[in-house]
Amino acid sequence: MTRPEPAIFDGKRIRLILFDLDGTLADTAPDLAYALNQTLALHGKEPLSFEQIRPHISHGGIALIRAGFGIESGHPEFEKYRQDLLTIYLDNIARETALFPGMDEVISFFERNNLSWGIVTNKPDWLTDPLMEKMGLTERAACIVSGNTTDNSKPHPEPILHACRLVGFKPDESLYIGDAERDIEAGRRAGTATLTALFGYLTKADQPDRWGADGTIDHPIEILKQLGYPEYITS
Predict the structure, then answer these.
(1) Which of 116, 119, 87 is nearest to 22 (CA)?
(2) Pairing of strands 116-120, 16-19
(3) Could you give phi then psi for residue 190, rounded to 5 degrees?
């Protein structure tokens, strides 16, 4: 079978596709919501609905504690609540988490056609690594860059630049896909093409049209359409 030429996106030949993890590659919201509500229950608080929790997922444990307990990081109990949340989450890290529908088809297409893909996330490695392992993705990814892999995390470009070096491709041969403004900023500063995943954990206050991404997607399969593969382009 003849292999397709490397994808052309926004005039660039793309050889490496990098994903944010939470809210882009995988739907981690159910397990993080479960962990927050278990933490609230542990401290005698009422649970929040999934709809209340979901928009805060991409912003990590600090944002979840703020949303759940209505306190800021200077509160004397804040760090205790956050550590309880992270402990519960680690114990339930792949309880319901799964790739977004269509995402396995996307990364399988990349693998069949010798395109490299990887992860650049602000999630710390002690959470990223077990999650990737439980999802069966560790060996499939060309690189996994976590929030503490480099000295700086997104929106700094260093993690994306590090991922490009690990795989051996230049930033202008790479595409970064994320669901938060910091993802798009990091990609732009690193010199990659960027796509905003509108199916991710955006809030009503977000304005993705102002983030400066090279494009947007409403569904993972649209990545292949954006990359110009004929079988995914419909009239």
Answers:
(1) 119
(2) parallel
(3) -80, -20
pLDDT tens-digit map of 167-211: 999 999 999 999 999 999 999 999 999 999 999 999 889 999 999
AA identity, residue 136: G
Is the pTM for the entire model greater than 0.90?
yes
Q: Look-up: residue for tokens 């995402």?
A: 103
Distances (CA, A) of 175 to 63, 83, 100, 115, 209: 27, 34, 19, 11, 18
Cα 65 to Cα 40: distance, rounded to the nearest angstrom: 9
Q: Residue 143 phi/psi, 5° resolution? A: -160, 150
Report yes or no: 104 and 220 within 8 Å, Cβ to Cβ.
no
d(CA 36, CA 161): 33
Question: Catalytic: 20?
Answer: yes
Q: Identify the active-site residue in 22, 27, 31, 179.
A: 22
Query: What stretches of the chain adopt beta strand conformation (E)?
Result: 7-9, 12-14, 16-19, 26-27, 98-99, 116-120, 143-145, 174-178, 193-197, 216-217
Give yes or no for a cis peptide into 230 (omega within 30° of 0): no
pLDDT at 233 (0 to 100): 74
Could you tell me which residues come within 8 angstroms of residue 138 by beta carbon, excluding any fewer than 6 positions away? 129, 132, 144
Give the whole-angstrom CA distance, residue 213 versus residue 183.
10
Answer yes or no: are the C-beta atoms of 29 and 23 closer than 8 Å: yes
pLDDT tens across 92-111, in order? 999 999 999 999 999 999 99
Q: What percent of the chain has pLDDT over 70?
A: 96
CA 47 remoteness from chain centre: 25
